[in-house]
């Protein structure tokens, strides 16, 4: 008679029925997870598609060009890809939105690197001589003169340098 428990080298016993049941529950959970994701994405997909067109419309054009290229190379694969694109539109729109956001971020990083290499140009305003006040013009300041009195006989060598 065959034993339902098989023994492996380590001595632990594994029930194949429980393992099969676990795998089955895993795939059922995966199915409901995909179903929920499809339901949520089906409501958000039109918004994501419009945002993709606003952010970078070239992503959608490139995807369409890829589908046309596949149809020209192999009509069966191209037609299947087009049909799957319509059936799985929520996932396709989420993919295209993610690609547009990624390209946007990459372009921003490239722009930052280019700015660091070339330097940042600062805008300035050219002031003409009429508009600019002369900082050395001392007409408004009273002239203060110090007179050295005869009672200040204390002097040092440093003061003598300025006489």
SSE run: EEHHHH
Low-confidence parts? none
Specify the structural class: mainly alpha
Strand content: under 5%
Mean pLDDT: 82
Distance between the termini: 124 Å
Architecture overview:
The structure is a single chain. The protein is an all-alpha fold and 163 residues long. The chain contains four helices and two strands; from the N terminus they run ββαααα. The protein has a two-stranded antiparallel ribbon with strand order 1-2. A hairpin with a 5-residue loop joins strand 1 (6-7) and strand 2. The longest helix is centred in the N-terminal third of the chain and has 58 residues, at 16-73. The radius of gyration is 40 Å and the shape is elongated. The mean pLDDT is 82.
Annotate the secondary structure layout.
Blueprint: E1 6-7, E2 13-14, H1 16-73, H2 75-87, H3 89-118, H4 157-160
Antiparallel strand pairs: 1-2
Helix pairs in contact: 1-2, 1-3, 2-3
Summarize the entry for a quick read.
The chain is mostly helical. Helix content is 64%, strand content 2%.
Task: Name the descriptors.
single chain; 163 residues; mainly alpha
């Amino acid at each position: 008679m065959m034993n339902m428990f098989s023994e492996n080298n380590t001595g632990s016993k594994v029930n194949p029925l429980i393992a099969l049941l676990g795998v089955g529950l895993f795939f059922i959970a995966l199915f409901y997870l995909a179903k929920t994701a499809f339901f949520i994405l089906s409501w958000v997909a039109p918004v994501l598609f419009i945002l993709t067109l606003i952010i970078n419309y070239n992503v959608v054009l490139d995807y369409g060009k890829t589908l046309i290229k596949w149809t020209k190379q192999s009509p069966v694969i191209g037609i299947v890809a087009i049909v799957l694109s319509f059936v799985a539109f929520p996932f396709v729109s989420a993919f295209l939105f993610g690609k547009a956001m990624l390209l946007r971020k990459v372009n921003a990083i490239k722009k930052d690197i280019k700015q660091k290499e070339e330097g940042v140009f600062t805008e300035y305003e050219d002031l003409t001589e009429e508009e600019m006040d002369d900082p050395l013009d001392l007409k408004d300041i009273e002239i203060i003169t110090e007179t050295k009195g005869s009672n200040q006989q204390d002097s040092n060598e440093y003061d003598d340098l300025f006489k």
